[in-house]
Amino acid sequence: MTNELTAVTTAQAWGFFQVFLRLIALFAVAPVFGSREVPVPVRIGLALVLSLAVYPLVSQSVAPVPTDMFLLLAAALRETVIGLLMGAIVSLLFSAAVMAGDLMDIQMGFGMAAIFNPALGAQTAMMGQFMQRYSVVVFLLVNGHHLLLNGVVTSFTALPAASFTLSADALRLAGDLATTILVAGLRIAAPAVATLLIVDVALALVSRAAPQINVFVLGMQVKVVIGLIVFMAALGLITTVLQTYLTGATGEALGALRAFRGQ
User: Fold this and answer.
1) Percent of the chain scored above 90 by pLDDT?
2) Taking CA atoms, which of 21, 53, 179, 203 is between 20 and 30 Å from 152?
3) Dihedral sign for Cα atoms in the order 99, 105, 110, 112
């Protein structure tokens, strides 16, 4: 009876540890949870609490206890990689909003006034900063954090650690993901960037017609004002595009995980 109780306890502890590894790896890079502004102890504590809640839901999908130390380390590494992969894919979709902000900064002339963004750990100009923060707000408003946690539960069925492998579908994933991010960024930035391109053409014609006008100085002020007006007018459309991509971010991550599942 004692040996049986010990075996059950070992299996449960190993299953809980697998869930914790996948969650803590996800929280290391995922948006909102993985922000540099969230202290590491908070992430670890949240991962522990959520692991307690998630484990009963996935206890039938976790891998059995490995038979030796090498297999245990390999299984732990696979769980960590799966968590990092899922969080990174969702985080990369957020980068489309930052890319759109950077495109607008370049066109509006804000690129020369970049400041440090603690959430990204890099220099970002004004519109890039705003789009990064705004995308987080939209993500929370559409309950993206709930979808992400639900995706963690689903991921144990979509990609058990034992079936993690590279395949042709997985190798094509990088190109498809890069295309999705590029298209999303262009769709978000399109209203402001397209308008400012027209403004550039108009300023070039003014410079040609009236060379005595200092178009460089005038253009900087005009492009900032028109760019902000167009951006505010198109904010509803931008929000709709963000909602579409951020709501589907977890689905994109789960679809990517299935590409790594060996058949």
Assistant:
1) 0
2) 179
3) positive
- State the Cα–Cα distance between residues 104 and 258, nearest whole angstrom: 35
Question: What is the residue range of 107's domain?
Answer: 2-259
**Distance (Å, rounded) from C-alpha 194 to C-alpha 134?**
21
SS3 of residue 261 by DSSP: strand
Cβ atoms of 90 and 30 within 8 Å: the answer is yes
Report whether pLDDT(160) > 50: yes
The structure tokens listed for 176 are 């498809």
Burial (CB count within 10 angstroms: exposed 0-12, middle 13-18, buried 19+), residue 94: buried
The dihedral through the CA atoms of 15, 20, 23, 25 has a sign that is: negative
How many structural domains comprise the chain? 1
Displacement of CA 234 from its chain's centroid (Å): 23
If we measure between CA atoms, which residue out of 178, 150, 146, 183 comes closest to residue 256? 178
Cα separation, 31 vs 172, in Å, equals 24
Q: Given a cut of 80, is residue 253 above it in pLDDT?
A: no
Q: Tell me which residue has tokens 């790896």.
A: 25
* Residues comprising the chain, all counted: 263
Q: How far apart are CA 95 and CA 47, in angstroms?
A: 24
Torsion of CA 144, 147, 149, 152, to 10 degrees: -130
In this prediction the pTM is 0.78
d(CA 254, CA 155): 6
Q: In this structure, are residues 149 and 250 in contact, taking their beta carbons and an 8 Å threshold?
A: no
Q: Which of 102, 150, 108, 137 is nearest to 123 (CA)?
A: 102
Between CA 231 and CA 219 the distance in angstroms is: 17
Q: Are 101 and 127 in contact (CB under 8 A)?
A: yes
